[in-house]
Design brief:
Number of strands: 18
Structural class: alpha/beta
Mean pLDDT: 96
Order of helices and strands: EEEHEHHEHHEEEEEEHEHEHEHEEEE
Strand content: 15-25%
CATH topology: Metallo-beta-lactamase, Chain A
Bound molecules: zinc ion
Helix content: 10-25%
CATH architecture: 4-Layer Sandwich
Length: 373
């Protein structure tokens, strides 16, 4: 199994080739920012192609089936996860192309899973539209491809049968699972597919991050965590004071071998409780802003008082290099596409970093073999 974290500087895109060759893409963001924004990073490897095109080229290179993505999961509707109207390209199908609408027009998606289908009204349609200028185009994209055979499903929190192996499910029946941990502020309880809503106030006070969808992939002893931009802390400056969903996920996620940091390891992410429960051996930061990660978050992630033992840090771009300072920055492996390779049986893994600028995805760093714990 290979899990690729594709570096674009413009948002998240994770591409997993599961043990039997089934493919799962998590998000395909594109902020569409002009080169040289003050706080945000520039497009990598360069601005000659739209981000969606860079994503497609990467996935086609590493996919066992370059003409198809079996599952596309959208964690939430922010531009850095689905695409933006800024710098979007006109399309001939009635919607603008950016991020996922670009990718989905180029490589056929088998099943699309997002947190909104079919009504796109949690916490309300106004909330989602306000936070996601591309929403109208995205909905047209969804309907266009649904009419042409793409399956569309709402994310089912608690389920372990929404993302399944399509080719050899029986062969991996005993040691592979994808569990839907959290979505729309509802959290798996840890028993069966039971869930519980973890808020009591008005969800219309949420921003788009709190309802992020998240999954855990388990293969043998190896576990991987990716929960989009889930938040883990309250801050007085936010209207909503029910922002901590990581602590509920921490109750059920168990140990995690490799953690994709929530919300780009920004101000409100990767809280202590989650760290104590998950004790990751490696953190991966998908980074596009100078506060990805935020300095205090990085201090916390490297605090061995929270949990003992070594851990490694990976990052897709150098956007936070100056803000973190030389000491914290030196904890990171060289920046680039971060690829987690899990060996058959899920006992051993290794992490590669691929050069973003080389054109042939040259290996820049190799962790060597590690035992999954
Ligand atoms: Zn984000």
């Amino acid at each position: 199994m290979d899990i690729h974290h594709i570096a674009t500087g413009q948002g998240d895109c994770t591409f997993a080739v599961l043990p039997d060759g089934t493919t799962l893409m998590i998000d395909a963001g594109d902020l569409g920012l002009p080169q040289g924004s003050r706080h945000w990073y520039h497009r990598v490897p360069d601005a000659s192609q739209p981000t969606g095109e860079w994503l497609c080229r990467y996935m086609r290179c590493f996919s066992p089936n370059p003409d198809r993505i079996d599952y596309a999961m959208v964690t939430h509707f922010h531009a850095d996860h689905i695409g933006s109207v800024k710098e979007s390209l006109p399309g001939r199908r009635g919607y603008r192309r950016s991020g996922i609408t670009y990718v989905g027009d180029t490589i056929r998606i088998g099943t699309l899973v997002d947190r909104g289908w079919p009504d796109y009204d949690f916490p309300s349609r106004e909330n989602i539209s306000r936070e996601s200028p591309l929403l109208g185009d995205y909905l047209k994209f969804v309907h266009y491809w649904k009419e042409r055979g793409m399956k569309v499903q709402g994310f089912r929190t608690g389920a372990d049968d929404q993302f399944t192996l399509l080719h050899k499910p029986r062969r991996y029946r005993k040691n592979f699972e994808i569990r839907n941990l959290v979505g729309n502020a509802v959290v798996w309880t840890g028993s069966g597919s039971e869930t519980r809503a973890m808020y009591s106030g008005d969800p219309r006070l949420f921003d788009e991050n709190q309802p992020s969808c998240g999954i855990r992939i388990r293969y043998g002893k190896f576990t991987y965590y990716n929960c989009g931009d889930l938040s883990g802390m309250n801050f007085p400056r936010y209207k909503c004071q029910e922002r901590d969903f990581e602590s509920y996920v921490a109750d059920v996620c168990g140990r995690i071998t490799v953690m994709k940091c929530d919300h780009h390891a920004a101000t409100d992410a990767v809280n202590e409780k989650l760290m104590r429960a998950a004790r990751p051996q490696a953190f991966i930061v998908l980074a596009g802003h100078r506060e990805h990660p935020w300095k205090p978050t990085m201090d916390r992630m490297s605090d061995k008082g929270i949990y003992p033992g070594d851990r490694d840090y990976y990052i897709t771009t150098e956007c936070s290099r100056d803000d973190l300072g030389p000491e914290l920055w030196s904890l990171f492996k060289p920046a680039g596409h971060v690829v987690v390779r899990v060996y058959p049986g899920g006992r051993k893994y290794r992490i590669y970093v691929l050069d973003v600028f080389s054109g042939d995805y040259r290996i820049k760093y190799d962790s060597g073999l590690r035992n999954a714990e």
